[in-house]
UniProtKB/TrEMBL annotation:
Residues 175-261 form the HTH araC/xylS-type domain. This is AraC family transcriptional regulator. It comes from the Bacteria. The lineage of its organism: Bacteria, Pseudomonadati, Bacteroidota, Cytophagia, Cytophagales. It holds the Pfam family HTH_18. It comes from Spirosoma foliorum. Coiled coil: none annotated.
């Protein structure tokens, strides 16, 4: 299964964070054994995701599984929990019996809540206990259901966020730039975004490399590809590459291959 080409969300149950955390955490999710069996049966399967620069935590509540980040491959053991930045193509190889709790942060969310800069995690798979307390992770695994696990994690994140209290100016600028771009202006260049935010292109570049771990150009190229591909999959007949700042369909096709590693003809009928 490939993100956007396939509806990978159908395999999970989801919870949105409370309003205080909604700017920094996109969602909590957990594997649904019933839905997984409905769509995959008893067969092993893989989920492929392309770059988003969103720090993502995987808490393993079930069996070992394999994780590929770019060209590197990892065997994740039953008791191992991990964090990845998702700055590269990620593929998770699953069994129908897998049980994984996911926490997906927005860019800069780790730093706003925990004071941890995400740029250091590029192209890595790090054990989650380097970021979250081992006692917290153990307690999450002892709880009987998804709702209670989310409540515990959310309470911890809120307590850490309130300790930090003040969000630094550069995180705010990055988040405003992302919101502006995703609101429907994918033709904006970095310089135009900087002007809209009353800052300089050099400053915006520095803020992005500090907060997200990549340049504005590289990050927004990924966002544009996601937005355009989602629109294409939804309705090919109404899709126009020009609305997303592409020169033509060939330019769009090349971007799809660059970010997903797949050709449209292989994935969309």
């Amino acid at each position: 299964m490939t993100e956007i080409f396939d509806n990978i969300r159908k395999l999970y149950r989801f919870a949105t964070p409370c309003p205080e955390l909604a700017t920094y955490i996109e969602f909590f999710s957990e594997s649904s054994a019933e839905e997984t069996y409905r769509y995959t049966g008893d067969s092993p399967f893989a989920i492929r995701m392309f770059p988003s620069w969103t720090p993502t935590c995987y808490i393993n509540l079930g069996q070992p599984y394999q994780l590929s980040v770019g060209s590197a491959h990892y065997q994740i053991q039953q008791r191992t929990d991990v964090l990845i930045l998702r700055n590269n193509i990620v593929e998770r190889h699953n069994l129908p019996t897998d049980h994984i709790l996911t926490i997906k942060f927005f860019p800069g969310g780790l730093e706003a809540i925990l004071g941890i800069n995400q740029a250091q995690f590029s192209d890595q798979v790090v054990t989650l206990d380097t970021v979250l307390p081992t006692a917290l992770l153990n307690r999450v695994k002892q709880l009987p259901d998804f709702r209670e696990r989310v409540e515990l994690l959310q309470a911890f994140f809120l307590s850490q966020y309130k300790k930090k209290n003040a969000i630094t100016h550069y995180i705010n600028v990055v988040q405003k730039a992302i919101d502006l771009y995703e609101a429907g202006t994918p033709e904006f260049t970095s310089s135009q975004l900087a002007n809209e935010l009353f800052t300089t292109n050099k400053t915006l570049y520095r803020y992005f490399t500090n907060v997200v771990g990549t340049t504005p150009k590289q990050y927004f190229s990924s966002v544009r590809a996601r937005l355009a591909l989602s629109a294409y999959v939804t309705d090919k007949k109404l899709f126009s590459p020009y609305e997303y700042g592409y020169y033509d369909m060939s330019h769009f096709y090349k971007d799809v291959i660059r970010f997903t590693g797949k050709k449209l003809i292989e994935s969309v009928s």
